[in-house]
Design goal:
- The structure is a homodimer.
- By secondary structure, chain A is α/β, with parallel strands linked by helices.
- The first copy, chain A, is 47% helix and 14% strand.
- Chain A has 16 helices and 12 strands.
- In chain A, the strands form 3 sheets. Chain A has an 8-stranded mixed sheet with strand order 5-2-1-6-7-10-11-12, sandwiched between helices. Chain A has a two-stranded antiparallel sheet with strand order 3-4.
- In chain A, helix 5 links the parallel strand 6 and strand 7.
Chain lengths: 348, 348
Amino acid sequence: MKVAIVGAGLMGTGIAWPLSDNNHEIRLVGTHLDKHIIKSCKEQNYHPRLKRFLPDRVTPYYVEEIEQALDGVDFLVSGVNSLGAHWIGKTISPYLLDGQKIIAVTKGLEASSEGELLILPDILYSELSKSIRDKVSLAAIGGPCIAGELAGRRQSCVVFASRDIETAKFLAKAFRTDYYHIWPSSDLLSLEVSVGMKNAYAMAVGMAQGALEKAGGVDEAGALMHNLAAAIFAQGCTEISRVLTAIGADPSFAYKLPGAGDLFVTSAGGRSVTLGKLLAKGHSYAEAQEIMKGETLEAVYIVQQMAQILSAKRTNTAINKGSIPLMEHLIEVITEGKSLDINLDAFF
Amino acid sequence: MKVAIVGAGLMGTGIAWPLSDNNHEIRLVGTHLDKHIIKSCKEQNYHPRLKRFLPDRVTPYYVEEIEQALDGVDFLVSGVNSLGAHWIGKTISPYLLDGQKIIAVTKGLEASSEGELLILPDILYSELSKSIRDKVSLAAIGGPCIAGELAGRRQSCVVFASRDIETAKFLAKAFRTDYYHIWPSSDLLSLEVSVGMKNAYAMAVGMAQGALEKAGGVDEAGALMHNLAAAIFAQGCTEISRVLTAIGADPSFAYKLPGAGDLFVTSAGGRSVTLGKLLAKGHSYAEAQEIMKGETLEAVYIVQQMAQILSAKRTNTAINKGSIPLMEHLIEVITEGKSLDINLDAFF
């Protein structure tokens, strides 16, 4: 089949490996932020962020060439991050055809202007023109999958969710390889909320590392702070389950691939963890932001969205004040500039 | 209050720190395996495995001095590991008094001779003399708590469970400090099964590290195998939830302190992880056992118990064949000598 991937960052490009191994023809379209990546791909067939040569059957395109890239494709992949959901909806809308399927590596949630909880596929949908939006099928990928490992053909397990289970199954068949294991699901809401929230909690798990450094590191008998990290991890899973319950979704996602699994891999390192470390070492959010200037901080984005959702007169959620105390404190730190001071006794 | 801890290993001794900080008088009784530890404690006030001097108010005793140590104590701590539950029941029984409370750091489950699933506090109970067993209250501790960190007064969060919630609350009050956070629970069954099973799944998470080494380590672009580790982690939580459901316990423990939390900290290192690495690098269980000779392998113990529970005509469980495929494969590897070959497609 012919596939277009829009967004040539780590995950957008990483997903090209299983597609290539399944003999699909892949058109990789960079966004306006990916110009240098597409240049390198066109000139040397090399992706500078993934640090790998592209697999077979991938043709790179600049965003200006998107019409040509999207022409006649069987399905599309949205490879942009959480902040790109509006842009990609607007951008691909003019080229979509009746019956096309769109699957997003983009995951997460957003607050509407009224503070309603919206999931990203619905944001993308809202940006499509009225004439096409109900004629295409949307899906999203969630679960523990570091792009560099997928591109290295390391064993990875994910969920493909779509409200239309046949769409999820169709896409799973197109992507599935002996290293990329896929479970189709019709529970798009539970998937998106779990994988969205996990970025904030990975930041919180990272705070244990920062607390350790602040306390002078390993002590004379070799004690680290794994106990604290694990308590924060469990609280993160618990809060995900509570939000899922409050919005009428499935709380068991909290201990599956998109919950505990995705939180585990995200807590192993990366920008969210780095930000958590900086905050726990005593930096204010403003200082940490300055240190990490230029990085896309999805953990911050999700905390900001949750702040709006929790403070609004909520129309579609019933998240009680005090029920997600870790998230509530992260909101104070990120949006109100308060000092980090996690109250473990408010947990569970 | 006066407290006796029986078992002077890592966790039995680690728990002395919060007790000491709460001004209790502590008698630390070594088992017959702890002779060298008690010798060092008596002569130098130093615990050689924890690599720390004992806190104030701790008096060490050899097992031969147990009668003196247990005389007049307000409550007891069982500090032995899973394999010591029978021994400690028999050993303390003659000295117990009406109304005493016993809390175990020992955690897990065991198969009865009929393959019934029993939790360790019930094993301990069964070894007490009939005249006293119903006059004492039993409790157990679960949750992510590395002993060396507790002894270093690092922040730790745990659950104290007893079928008698007042016992759990009484003990929580006796142990609670500003670094040792305790949630009382009456759900002893869910706690024990979660924390018991997690040892087997931590071994499985460790297999991702072994698989990485076997594959030649980090690849040219820096890819590890965190995706695989996270998938196994999520499957472990999922299987814990399924067993909890099958035995009529609470599946939500899978994403709380005794489930995801305890699995997270146990997966960070230790003997279970080391064993998983060896198996994934290609060693048979017999070879791995030889390499780790002399170590207490709680992961193996739990897999052996689960083998008996799953194969017996079960009287108190309804765990369906195929519902916990990772555990079933671990059973094949440990008890039948099969080669490790995890089928990820059987997951979830």
